[in-house]
């Protein structure tokens, strides 16, 4: 008998992290950013110069990877610290290099199996809002509430541009950002294992023209309707 689970999936840049974190805070649940786990593994493989098509070499590194995630409970805007093998990679996992390679890493069976186990262990007792690509379909298929968050590619590119500008990296153009998002979505939705797709019982929220507060409110209301 476990507490409730909220699953939030969707394409890149749809605002899942911001929304999931605020929903967790409002409902008093834990927050799990599974994308950060795939990013941390990608950072480690790149740091060690492991060829991503060498699954045996990847599996070896992954087997000894220990990831820790933290959620600061004071400031909901502050970045969530991430460690892998005791290295603080909070900022490094958001780099262009990691972003460009994470979909290839996330397509590997050995990586997905390993992280799936960790994610399910984290949610064993429930009480969690988990966010990613395959939460409602594979990680927590029995989640009480499943949300599929989307937005037009133009809107997602604009948001990504704003995020980067806030970090002093506003020089990448909107068109390039839109292309990168679409390329990542294409890889994530066409891979063989646990591809990005809306679970049949997920509620889709198209967020163009909605504020963060409105999206959070919509999800929290759905949750309270059912509890
Ligand atoms: O959400 P975020 O953009 O940080 O995710 C980075 C990448 O991690 C995704 O593009 C995808 O390749 C992978 N991912 C995944 N399954 C998840 C979460 C993320 O394959 N549940």
TrEMBL record:
Instruction: Please list where the region (Cytidylate kinase) is annotated.
Output: 1-227
Localization: Cytoplasm
Q: Which domain of life is it from?
A: Bacteria
Domain Cytidylate kinase residue range list: 6-223
**Which family does this protein fall into?**
In the C-terminal section; belongs to the cytidylate kinase family. Type 1 subfamily. Belongs to the cytidylate kinase family. Type 1 subfamily.
What the protein does? Catalyzes the transfer of a phosphate group from ATP to either CMP or dCMP to form CDP or dCDP and ADP, respectively.
Q: What is this protein called?
A: Bifunctional pantoate ligase/cytidylate kinase
Q: Which organism is it from?
A: Oxynema aestuarii AP17
Q: Supply the gene name.
A: panC/cmk
């Amino acid at each position: 008998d476990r507490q409730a689970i909220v699953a939030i999936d969707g394409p890149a840049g749809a605002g899942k992290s911001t929304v999931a974190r605020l929903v967790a805070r409002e409902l008093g649940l834990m927050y799990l950013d599974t994308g950060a786990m795939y990013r941390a593994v990608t950072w480690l493989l790149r740091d060690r110069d492991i060829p991503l098509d060498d699954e045996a070499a990847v599996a070896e590194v992954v087997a000894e990877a220990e990831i820790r995630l933290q959620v600061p409970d004071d400031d909901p805007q502050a970045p969530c610290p991430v460690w892998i093998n005791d290295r603080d990679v909070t900022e490094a996992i958001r780099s262009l290099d990691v972003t460009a390679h994470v979909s290839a890493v996330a397509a590997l069976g050995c990586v997905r199996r390993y992280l799936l186990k960790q994610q399910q262990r984290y949610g064993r007792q429930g009480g969690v809002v988990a966010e990613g690509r395959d939460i409602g379909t594979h990680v927590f298929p029995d989640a009480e509430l499943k949300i599929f968050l989307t937005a037009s590619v133009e809107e997602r590119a604009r948001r990504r541009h704003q995020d980067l500008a806030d970090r002093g990296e506003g020089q990448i153009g909107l068109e390039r950002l839109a292309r990168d998002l679409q390329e990542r979505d294409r890889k994530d939705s066409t891979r063989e294992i646990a591809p990005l797709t809306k679970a049949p019982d997920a509620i889709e929220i198209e967020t163009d023209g909605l504020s963060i507060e409105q999206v959070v409110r919509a999800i929290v209301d759905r949750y309270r309707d059912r509890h």
